[in-house]
Amino acid sequence: MGNTESVLVQKRLARFRPEERPVVEGVFDRLQGGAGGPSAATGKTLTLQMLQCSMGSLAPDSMVKRVYQCMCCIDPGQAAPAATGKPSTTAASGVGREQLVIFLADTLRGTAEERAPLVMAMSQRGAGPAATVVTCEQVAEFLQDLISAVVQILVHRGRLQGWKPERMGDDSLGVKLLAEQLCSELKPSDQGGCDVSSLEDWIFRVSQVSLYLEMLVAEGLNVSLSGRPAPTLLPPCRETPWKELKSLLDLPTLMFLAPQLPDSYSAPWRLVFSTRLHGESFTRMVAGLTKRGPTLLLIRDTKGHVFGGFASHAWEIKPQFQGDSRCFLFTVSPSLRVYTATGYNQHFMYLNQNQQTMPNGLGMGGQHHYFGLWLDSNFGCGHSRARPKCTTYGSPQLSGEEDFTIDSVEVWAVGKPPEPEEGEEGQGKKSILDMDPEVQAMMEMAGKTLHSQGLREPEEDQEQ
Question: How far apart are CA 441 and CA 433, in angstroms?
Fold first, then answer.
């Protein structure tokens, strides 16, 4: 750039390591050269077409135009875009080299204060004069474009971690729901709009905004910086029969739920029960739940509501409550929300079966006969009772109706399976009864003696 570059640009470049600065400064020439044609590299500005050539396969065109509009609004001699209330004088002719460097520095290494004007500029419609206030609806539309771009990047770059979008839910709906959830954290100013201060506060509190924006810019403009590996937005998925499955999850929902789990729960997600694969059987669901470690339960009712709960511990069949404050309830549709423990009581998890004096089924939160989430052992029905809120999790009614009918259920093991208890490793080979727990349960209910339980040969250690 030479010695004529502005003080503002010099300060921005100082954020990068010495070996990174040539990469950042070289983006401008690379974008010009990548547009095609010998005359492309001779210009002094970047055009929208040049940006589309670089980002077009990774982001919706509407998002590329938002980025271009934002770059055009940057004044290299003053502050970030929108703070001055006027677009840069180069907006009509294109993006200058210094504007691009400032944009890269603020998106990749900037503070919430510096990113807020960028988000404001990208949230505006059209290429008119920069505004000082945007509406929540405008921010939500910007978020939809941004999240759509992130999903495209994950698919295009092959970073799906074993997930199969074609065998999952509708990503377009998930994009809208995740955008609405992120926007729900936004606190408008007293006048009802979103000014730079309210956007700054929001970006500071909601880390996903900066994470997604950084991923879009780094991937879309191919800016590879040392020591900055691409973020992993999806948990690994293993041992899942995708050919037979149509999951309740979609990629944006995964992007929302995965960060809600405790940091130590980094094991691959494994499908352990699905009504589509295993039928509508409470006993089979229990067999999938127990001895699996932490699990995520997903339910869709016949009204179209999707909701569930995270169990921090392996489920045990017993008439007492279990679990700890890391458990939570959540909704996916019609809105993405998480409801964590309130501390009011410790009724986190409950699982019981074949008892005459205690409720039989799976519950989370609340109390007997009045759970925040309940699946009856007579598989097919449940309830979500919260008037006005579930005492354990502070959640509202999760289902479409208080007493709901199940459409489908999925259970995902999301943590490391528990270590085998002392004595379990030498229990002997499994009998046919172990292979079909429903048969075993029916025999127990009929009062039949399970003779094979005492006729097992010792066996070698085996994995759980």
Answer: 9
In tens digits, the chain (464 residues) has pLDDT values of: 444 567 888 889 999 999 999 999 999 999 988 655 443 444 689 999 999 999 989 999 999 999 999 999 998 876 556 444 444 444 457 899 999 999 999 999 999 999 999 999 999 976 555 678 999 999 999 999 999 999 999 999 999 999 999 999 999 999 999 999 999 999 988 777 899 999 999 999 999 999 999 999 999 999 988 766 777 899 999 989 999 999 999 999 999 999 999 876 678 999 999 999 999 999 999 999 998 999 999 999 999 999 999 999 999 999 999 999 999 999 999 999 999 999 999 999 999 998 888 899 999 999 999 999 999 999 999 999 998 999 999 999 999 999 999 999 999 999 877 676 655 544 444 444 444 444 454 444 455 444 444 434 333 333 33
Secondary element (H or E) of residue 337: strand 337-340
> How many Å from the N-terminal Cα to the C-terminal Cα in the chain?
61
Of 89, 49, 206, 73, the C-alpha closest to 139 is 206
Dist. CA 59–CA 17, nearest whole Å: 28
d(CA 162, CA 270): 11
- 18 Cβ contact list (under 8 Å, min separation 6): none
